[in-house]
Design goal:
Radius of gyration: 20 Å
Structural class: alpha/beta
Distance between the termini: 47 Å
Helix content: 25-40%
Strand content: 15-25%
Order of helices and strands: EHHEEEEHEEEHEHEEHEHEHEH
Largest sheet: 8 strands, mixed
Number of helices: 9
Length: about 290
């Protein structure tokens, strides 16, 4: 009697996608910060096919003008690495916060103290719902002037002029360390006090409340809609995208992505300047249409 090897089980097909979650800078946007005509058409086709599109970014809400025309029906974006869900309907300057996951003032002060001791030379900024305050030595942002310039301890004081505005995240900058070295040192020092990540090519870290990330806020939004992780397709390029790409059923790293993102991703697409998000979204739409 002869025996034969059992036939391998085919890999199960992915369920029809119900939501596309995409980072912006280095991912959906080209390097000149534009949304290409091909990408605009792909996003519109996805929405028409019944696939929601969520922008999930480290950007604050006030930097969302570049995509506010492309939010379609739901009008929502996840900003500040998950610290806020924002309704962008109404256009530039008229956004509305619909969900906030802020840092507690005491926790933010604790993180500042820990990082000052562990990584000397660190300077800070405080991102609130109304804008940014930063320390005198923090690199100035010409496109986003500070509401207040003062030491972080004063920016976070109970009697600060901005104390009534929730704290969305801290930003920490170092002028000498490499970006990845700074991230490694900061994560070791901060531990469970906060979520520490980065999306900038410079040594600029973004620090959120414990448990707050792109992935965790996207999961909340999907749960509210009855969307399972396996029905989500996500795109990203930097360390602040790793958790989101790992959580989604299909997470795609851009060809220009950080090595950690490529390792975490389900698949890869071409670079942001070559419309890598649009390439995959067009495939998803074609699959949805062929499935009826």
């Amino acid at each position: 009697m002869t025996t034969s090897a059992a036939a391998p089980h085919p890999e199960p097909a992915h369920p029809r996608p119900r939501l596309v979650a995409t980072d912006l800078d280095g991912t959906l946007l080209r390097d000149d910060k534009s949304v290409s005509p091909r990408t605009v058409a792909a996003l519109a086709a996805a929405e028409e096919a019944g696939i929601e599109v969520f922008f999930v970014t480290g950007r604050p809400a006030r930097w969302m003008d570049v995509v506010s025309d492309h939010v379609h029906g739901h009008g929502l974006a996840i900003c500040g690495n998950g610290a806020a869900v924002v309704d962008l309907h109404g256009g530039p300057g008229r956004h509305r916060f619909v969900k906030l996951r802020p840092m507690e003032r005491e926790s933010a002060l604790d993180v500042v103290d820990v990082l000052r001791a562990a990584v000397p030379g660190t300077t800070f900024a405080v991102e609130r719902t109304g804008g940014l305050g930063y320390e005198p030595a923090y690199p100035p942002l010409h496109m986003d002037p500070a509401l207040v310039t003062a030491p972080a301890e004063k920016l976070l004081a109970e009697d600060s002029d901005l104390a009534d505005q929730p704290i969305l995240k801290l930003l920490a900058h170092h002028g000498e360390l490499s970006p990845d070295d700074f991230l490694t040192h900061a994560r070791a020092a901060v531990g469970p006090r906060a979520e520490v990540t980065r999306s900038s090519p410079t040594a600029l870290l973004e620090i959120s409340a414990p448990g707050v990330s792109k992935a965790s806020t996207l999961a909340l939004c999907c749960e509210e809609r009855g969307i399972r992780p396996e029905e989500v397709v996500a795109f990203g390029d930097m360390p602040n995208d790793v958790e989101m790409l790992s959580w989604a059923g299909r997470g795609y790293a851009m060809a220009n992505a950080h090595p950690d993102v490529i390792t975490a991703a389900y698949g890869r697409t071409v670079a942001n300047n070559d419309d890598g998000v649009a390439v995959i979204v067009e495939q998803l739409v074609a699959e949805a249409q062929s499935a009826g």
